[in-house]
Every structure is written in structure tokens, then in C-alpha cells.
Records
---
Amino acid sequence: MDMIPITEALKLIDENTPTLPIELVSIDEALGRILAEEIFADMDLPPFDRSQMDGFAVRSVDVASAPVRLRVIGESIAGKGFDGEVKEGEAVKIMTGARVPIGADAVQKIELAKTEDEFVEILKSVEPQENIVLQGEEIKKGTSVFCIGEQVTERMIPTLASFGYKQIKVYQRPIVLILSTGSELVEIDKKPMRDEIRNSNSIMLYSFLKKIGIEAEILPNLPDDKDALADLIAEKILSDDKQKLLITTGGVSVGDYDFTKTIFKQMGARIFFERVFLKPGKPTVFAKLDQSLIFGLPGNPVSAAVTFYLFVRRALLRMQGAVNVELRKGFAVVKERLKAARDRDAVLPVFVSTDERGRLVVESLKFAGSSNFIAFARSNALVHIPVKRDLEREEIAQVWFLD
Ligand code: AMP
Ligand code: MG
């Protein structure tokens, strides 16, 4: 199978990632979920002509030649508006947020009024509608406010609450399994023997997923052993017809013990791509087995991270019906030359900051190799370096923020 450009890989993910079914969640569980229903205003806001001030509701014609004295016939407070009508020569005391009574068309603020017994002296005239927010001025009943496919942010919650969405239709979250393969791997709490390293990929991927609201299952590490991998896939993917997403790391290169891809194929997986013009991450595999999707990521922690951000994250969002599946894009000034790869586009973790002139600047992380997860720890973005096209100092680079 041919090596494909990154854009082609993204297209194949979009085309082959089915959207999950819809479920109903309570508003307190909605954060981060993708809307499966359009959200409408179920009432006018404000629901009545609302006072913006503490003061007096008046007829603007009555106070045109202020100062004038008006009779105070009642009060309008939040939660209990004045039900009578304001007639010539009359005023109603009103609080911020309260309903403006019939007959009144303006509010004069309390600082420009003087009360004495049942009268008020309005010291200054007001324009019609002054200090009033008219019914429906903020939004009209029936207006669409959020679309299907939008992700619920914490800032959308008050709108959902205001329009009565105690429960919200969202797309289901994917069931995600994480599997690290490699005979050199030991658990985090073990002291590695000679030739061994601790498995950092599983918990890394778990944390990436947690950050986007997905609680994944970490499967026990596997050695580079064909049968063990085949057995595990049979048990975890083929034994039921649930739609899952399996992320594996390791064993996708061309070494003698790299056979995750071979096993996927043997078990009947359809491979959509298995090599991408990307550094790091060339041997990334995207496949479908039964109902489930599989991403076979390289074992290098940084390669696994980059390919997660570029590919797996996108598929997870697509599964949940998200309209926006891109990482947030930006442009930053290159601080020191970023060297291109000769045969592939490079996508590298970098540090983007704001310089003293307020410009976004991008600096590389002094990678000692793609296994340098310590430098990676300080990254906050990915930079795109097109093939054979070094980015020189002061050039503008495209970055994707990892926030
Ligand atoms: P592989 O893709 O299997 O060739 O692995 C590439 C490199 O990544 C090797 O140096 C591995 O030791 C390392 N590696 C593979 N899997 C993991 C893992 N789960 N955690 C940390 N490093 C890993
Ligand atoms: Mg390996």
C-alpha cells in the first residue's frame, strides 16, 4: 500500500469513521459532549420589557419638561411586577430586572429622582425606551442558538439552562481500548531490568483521552508475540458487536518483530492506510475490524503523541458527530531555524509563546530524537514543517495548539 500525504490520511479518517448513536444526558453531564440536537430559545429574553436601573417607571411625555412631580402608584420588583397601568402624572417605583408596567415607556434612575411621601420629583427628562431592555431584544423565542455537532463548553451551560434543557441529546462517547505492545515493556511500578523500559504510552494515551472526556480502558501490555496479540484482539474486538476504538502502540515498523499490522490483516481488518508522509509517525496504521476502528501507532512516545493528536483525536471527534475536528490553528514567527525532513512533512511538538512585541513565536524543543518525551513534556503546540522546506528565523510557521 502506498505512502500517502497527511491530508489524504485525514480524508480517509473522515470517510471511514461512522458517527455513534445518540443518547440523552443530564445538563450536568453535558460538558464536552457533542450536541445531537439543535438548541432553541424556548422564550423571549427578556421575557418582558425589563428595567436596567433602580428608579421610576414613567411616561416619557410626562417628564419631558423635568423637573416634574409624579404620583407613585406602586412598585415593580424582580419576580413580582406591577400589574396596574401607569397613567398621566403617575410613576411606579421599579427595581433593576423588574417588569416595566403598562403605560410606562421609560425608566429614570433613582439618583435623578427625589421622593416625598407618595410623590416623586423626576429631576431630568428621559427618552422613550431609556433604561429599558425590550421584550425579546436579546433573543426571540424560537431562535436557534446552537447547532448539531457543536461541542458543549462551560460557557454554553447558562444558555442551555436558561432555555430549559435539563436533558440534552448528545452523541455517545466511544469505547476506547489502549494496548501497548513490545517485549521490552514493564509496568510503571517495576524496576526495568537490562533491555527493559517502562511503558509510558498507555498512561499517556489514557491521559490524552481523559483530557477530552473519554474514560479509556488500558489493556495489559503484550510482548511482541503474534499469538498473544491475535488472542487479545479476538477477545476484545471480535467477541461482541460493540463499536470500539482500539489504539495500539509499537510493532508497526519494518523490524523482524513488528507484526501488529500483519495480525490486523490476518484477522480480517480492512486497512485504510499504513504509511503516511509524516515525521514522526510514518508507519501509522488506520484500520477497521468488524464494527471497530483500530489505530496502530508507532511505539516512540513522541510519535505516538503526534499521531494521536493528528489522527486519533480526529476520529474520536468524528465518532461523536463533531463538526469541528481540527486542532486550533495559528501562525507564529520562527525563533530559530526549524529544519525540514528530506522525504516527509514534519509535525513536531514545539513551544509557542508571546514575545515582548506581542507576537506569537515558535521555538523547537531541542529533541535528541523522537523518543525524547522529556522535551515533549514542555510542548504546547505542533508545528508543521513542509518537506524539504526549512523554516528560517523570522518566517511564519503554521502551528496547531495542544489545548
Ligand atoms: P516500535 O514502534 O515498537 O519500534 O518502538 C519504537 C521505540 O519506542 C522503541 O525504542 C520502544 O522501546 C519505544 N516504545 C515502544 N512502546 C513503548 C511504550 N509503550 N512506552 C514507552 N516506549 C515505548
Ligand atoms: Mg517494538
---
Amino acid sequence: MVIFGATGDLTKRLIVPALYNLVRAKRLPEQFRLVGVSRMSQTTEDWILNLTARMNEFVAGRDCGFQVDQLDQAAWRWLTDRMTYLPGDLDDPEAYKRLGDHLASLDVKAGTGGNYLFYLAVADRLFGTAVSRLGEAGLTEENDGAWRRVVIEKPFGHDVASARALNADILKTMAEHQIYRMDHFLGKETVQNIMAIRFANGIFEPIWNRAHIDHVQITAAETVGVERRGRFYEQTGALRDMVPNHLFQLFAMTAMEPPISFDADAVRAKKAEIIQAIRPMGEAEALRNAVRGQYGAGSILGKPAAAYRHEPDVAPDSTTETFVACKLNVDNWRWAGVPFYLRTGKYMKRRRTEIAIRFRQAPYSLFRGTDVERMHPNWMILHIQPDEGVALELAAKRPGPAVVLGNVKLDFAYADYFKATCATGYETLIYDCLIGDATLFQRADNIEAGWRAVQPIIDAWAGQAVLDVPQYAAGSSGPTSADELLARDGRAWRPLG
Ligand code: BG6
């Protein structure tokens, strides 16, 4: 496995800790080798020392999913013994030649079979270059049964045109089956669990449609701001950063038709179909169905928080959105007339990622003449993070002589049933790349369908000549326009708590 961007944050915080967890779980083969490539000139020893320090920090701080008291030295050693570092500039063809020689020498020494996984943990402008240079250096050809794969992180394009161009570019060098486009939300256990809940239980699928469901709310609320990513975020914004990728994955898992098997293409075909079924919007509709906001000063979990416009590398008059909410209509037999409302934002009141499904209300007639003033609808909540689990909200009779209803919850918490494993969320994804299972990765058509669905919003916002993005206080539930979006339909967001 070769990591491009070996000294970057993603490598330190997620990829290497995930590899360490895979070693502990005995999931890596004896002949596994890890090569780090980055511009920094340093030795293998320096690279390992630096990573060891970070791993110890994570363990001490119980960060990155670590719940142990100390690093498992034997497992860490197993990994570091297999690591080498190679300085190289991704723009420089010579770097790929050196990498090819290095890989060939490792193959000879270790007797490995020449299977290569290239992980592009680098800025997105380098994705296309890296793949074509790998090709030119002969490193992407699959000969004699050996496989060559590439993992591409997000952002995969910035709109339909750039995503298409990037797909076309990398597909010149590699075939679709060699390309693993990463969406780390799919590494979350509870996202994968949506399929199990829906399809391994006989009771949900018969009511999972417009006859029984009133609407669906998908929320990814974060309590972090843009942190040190101002430069990236200024050009990206909440819509591009979260919606066509992460939120659409949650949407697709919830709304797709049952695939015929867990085969990667069977699952990905159903996901592509449901994203394609999102009703295309014209400009006026896009402006009506999507709202944005930007955080102003406020307080987050008791601490003062600065306004987005005062963050490092952010323009003082920036109009980049840090919050977005939108309404999607899905034109198929299962969902026609059932809106899906999506919202995501930074510096919000609570960290909460969930899918809330509101069922149609029971008729009132039976309760006429009792103390019950109105019926409460049933909700099913798929809690993705934190506090993973599933809840079903029901009405029940309060004890006593009068007919009065109370709201109760059937609540399943993952932690009550299953032992949490140490996980960054990247373990399954990396392991799947190694065994060649692309189910949890985005195919070219999935990516392009996602961009196509949000493109009308991107265009409509870009076309607004005079613009001041509505502000919301850091630590709130977002701008009031998000509430109005649902109020127009006689609905309301579930409170963030
Ligand atoms: C990333 C976005 O892809 O996902 C970030 O670029 C966001 O802005 C993050 O904070 C959210 O992921 P998670 O796993 O922390 O919910």
C-alpha cells in the first residue's frame, strides 16, 4: 500500500491508526508493506518517529477512536517494520519511476505478489495528475493476476462538469474496477446498519413507502467550526462539502430499492437510481427549496465562538455558507409526494447525525370525546452519531381512569448490545480495498448523479447578484429560513436538543 500525502493530517489521524487497528484485528497479510510518499525530505526513521509520537498522543487523549491505555507495542512494531518512506513530488514523473523501482525491490525482498493499492491522501487538484503519472510509470497495469487499485478521497469534483472531467481523466488510465472513490460516511457502522435494519427485518419494508411515511428528515449537525480549513472551505461551502456526498449516502441508504444481493454493483446500481430519481429543479424551485446560512459569533458548548468571517483564511465579507437545508422530491412509485428534508451545518447547538422518518398520523376519530387533544405521529430515528442506535416513538395510554396519551420510546442503543471496537471508521474501507470489495465506494455514475442533483442549487446561488447570506449564531439550530422551509409545508424540524 502506498500513501501519497504521507505526512498529512489524514494519514496521521485516520489512515495509519486504521492500519494499526487492522493489524490488531489480524486483518493484514504477513507480506503487507506500507510506503509513504510526500514532498518532505526525511528518512523512514523520521517518518516512523513522527507517527509514533502522534499515535501515543491519540491513545493518551483517547482520540481517533482509541479506548486503550497504551499503544500495543507488538502491533505497532509489526506495522512499522513494514514501513518505508520515499520523498517525492507528485508533479514530477521521476518520483513515480523511483517509486516503481522501490516497489519492485520490496516485492523481491518480501516475495510479495505485486498487488498495489495507491491511496491519494492529497489535495484534489493532484488526483488526475497522480493517476496519469502512475499510468505512465507502468504502475497501473494489472498483469499476471496482480491487481492495482487507487483510492481517491473527496472532494471528487466541485460540480457536474469537473466531476465528469475528473472521471474521464482517470478512466483514461485505470478501469472502473480499479478505482475506489471514498466517502468516509460509508465506513460508519451505523450507516452500514441502515441496510441491515431495513432488509433483515420483515416489519419495516412493507411500510417503507409513501402510503405510510409522511416525510423524512436527514440531519448532520456539527459542533465544530471550519477550524484550520478556511482556505478549503471558502471555495467549498457546506453544500458541496456535505450534501452530494455524505448526506446523499444517508439518503440513498434510506430511500433506495432493495438490491438483489450485496454485490458491489447491485448495491451501487440501486443507489445511483434513487439519486437519479430526485426531481430536477429549475432556478426558482432551487431558490425556494434550498436555504443557506453562515455562522456568526456565539457560543459552543459553553465556550465563546468567533464568527466565520473572522476565521483564519476567510474573507471578512465572505458569502460562503456554513449551513444548508434543502427539500428533495423523489419521483418514483415508492416516494412520490414524500419530501426528504436535508440539513447540515457547522457550529450548531449539538453534534447529531440522524435520519428521522415520520410516519403518517393515525386518524383521530376514536379519541373524539376523550382528553386526547391531538394525535402525535410516530417517528423512527436512525441515530448515526454520537450515541448510535435506533428509536421508535409511539403513543401509549397513561395509567389512570381517563384516556390520556403519553409519548414513549422503544430505544435500541448499540452500546447496550455490542462491544464497541476501536475504530476510526477507515478500517472497513481500507480492508475492503485490499480484498477488492467496492460496495462501500462510489462508482462514477453515483458521483455524477449526486452533483447533477445539487447543480441547480449551485447555479441558482451563483446567479444571485446581490447576496448576503443569512447569519445564525454559533451554537444555535441554524438560520430561521431553515425553519420556514418546513413551516411552508406545515412541518417542523425535530429539535436538535
Ligand atoms: C468531511 C467534511 O468530509 O466530513 C468536513 O469535509 C466534516 O467538513 C466531516 O466535518 C464530517 O465527518 P464526521 O465523520 O466527523 O461526521
